[in-house]
UniProtKB/TrEMBL annotation:
Bilayer disposition of the protein: Multi-pass membrane protein
Protein name as catalogued: O-antigen ligase family protein
Residue ranges occupied by any O-antigen ligase-related domain in the UniProt entry: 183-339
InterPro entries tied to this protein: O-antigen_ligase-rel_domated, WaaL-like
Single GO cellular component term: membrane
Compartment annotation: Membrane
Keywords for the protein's UniProt record, in alphabetical order: Ligase, Membrane, Transmembrane, Transmembrane helix
PANTHER family xref list: LIPOPOLYSACCHARIDE BIOSYNTHESIS PROTEIN PA4999-RELATED, TEICHURONIC ACID BIOSYNTHESIS PROTEIN TUAE
One MF annotation (Gene Ontology) recorded for this entry: ligase activity
Length: 417
């Protein structure tokens, strides 16, 4: 086994895995190197280690839909005769299916949990720097400019939720729990500074799920409910004191929804409604094959030229809903694949999040909160069309599922971990 012959490699693999989420969010050209190393190590493990392959079979509810999504979109691109460059981001699923094999190794779990939490803290600190030093009203991170504010907010919230779950672990040392809690707070406040309504609304039920699952496992309902109330209260207070911008953005939702029409589609909410109307037109016209991967923008602009769609949405290439994106571009079969992708992961992680063994329950809770965030944010935003959020989802869900699969295959004493 790798652990017996090369124990030092497990430290390297653990450090590389811990650093991966942060590399997704930073514009560093060399960030492909850790991914390449992990890909080769994962491929080697899949070929040589039967325990790793058994872990994949245990994680079939997560692995299978991801592999299906890769095959589905490859077929879609080929069938529609679309330039293969449109398949670039989606093709990364295959890489993460292999990289996930590294989670079946005997990892240094403390390195992973600290690394993920520190990533949330670092990204939150970047938000603070952009807001209070650079004077940027709506922070957006370093990777995608102003257009990336929504996905960056979701990205930080996912890592912050994982940090919250670690901070609630009574068996960890006080110092480590404080570190996780501090990183979670910095990350959450940084996400608030992005002023991204969809991710912030999705965070509340995802946060409640994490707290309630931990309360159910520990039996500490009073502490859990108190934490839930404090968390929601703190979010409301923070939003109301952020110079009024956040409340103003939420207040604009009702006004724009009530005044939207095909002739008046100006404003973030009205434009979304117009894009959703356009998406439904495309689904009605192409219910089985869809219009092709990444082709919504071309479809919408063609309808604008015909006078059927308001020109305010001409600049958009995606309908601001992941569910509509898959239904428009892949037809109803594409939507079914997305539902299976989220549903399979929710069932797998939800089933194991209440396991009495922390070595199973904690990665399951992290996976569950990740899927919840993406599934909820996907209602009003696209969560997979850019490399940063796409990579985080498949890296975490596939990796954590394989980790759980390997742990379930390994006999453990009752007091372990």
């Amino acid at each position: 086994m790798l652990e017996k012959t090369n124990p030092w490699r497990m430290w390297i693999v653990s450090l590389l895995l811990a650093a991966m989420p942060l590399t997704f969010a930073l514009p560093i050209k060399a960030k492909s190197i850790p991914a390449a190393v992990l890909f080769l190590a994962g491929l080697w493990a899949l070929l040589r280690d039967p325990d790793t392959r058994r872990a994949y079979r245990r994680a079939a509810w997560v692995i299978g839909p991801a592999a299906l999504a890769f095959a589905f979109w490859l077929t879609n691109v080929l069938a529609h005769g679309i330039d293969m460059r449109a398949f670039d981001v989606t093709s990364h699923i295959l890489a993460f299916l292999v990289i996930a094999a590294n989670f079946a190794a005997p990892l240094r779990t403390a390195v992973l949990r600290v690394g993920f939490s520190v990533s949330a803290g670092v990204l939150g600190a970047i938000c603070l720097e952009q807001r209070y030093i650079e004077g940027i009203d709506r922070v957006y991170g370093m990777n995608n400019g102003l257009w990336g504010a929504i996905e960056f907010g979701m990205f930080i919230l996912v890592l912050s939720l994982i940090a919250v779950a670690q901070a609630l672990r009574a068996e960890l040392s006080r110092g480590e729990r404080l570190l996780h809690g501090f990183c979670a707070i910095i990350g959450l406040y940084g996400a608030l500074l992005t002023q991204s309504r969809g991710p912030l609304l999705a965070f509340l039920p995802a946060f409640a799920i994490v707290v309630l699952f931990q309360s159910r496992r520990s039996g500490r309902w009073r502490e859990g409910l108190l934490l839930l109330a404090l968390g929601i209260g703190a979010a409301i207070v923070a939003a109301s004191t952020l110079h009024g911008e956040m409340l103003a953005r939420f207040a604009a939702v009702t006004e724009e929804m009530s005044t939207y029409s095909e002739q008046d589609a100006t404003g973030a909410v009205r434009e979304r409604l117009e894009m959703w109307r356009t998406a439904n037109m495309a689904i009605a016209e192409h219910p089985l094959a869809g219009v092709g991967l990444n082709q919504f923008g071309d479809y919408a602009r063609a309808r604008i030229a015909e006078g059927k769609v308001n020109a305010t949405v001409e600049r958009y290439d995606h309908p601001h809903s992941e569910y509509l994106e898959w239904a428009v571009t892949g037809g109803l079969p594409g939507l079914a694949v997305l539902v299976l992708l989220f549903g399979g992961a929710l069932l797998f992680f939800g089933r194991h999040a209440l396991n009495p063994d922390n070595a199973v329950a904690m990665p399951a809770t992290a996976g569950l909160s990740t899927v919840c965030m993406y599934a909820l944010c996907g209602l009003t935003d696209n969560v997979f069309y850019r490399a940063m959020p796409h990579s985080l989802y498949f890296f975490l869900t596939l990796g954590l599922a394989v980790y759980i699969g390997r742990t379930l295959n390994t006999p453990r004493p009752p007091a372990a971990h």
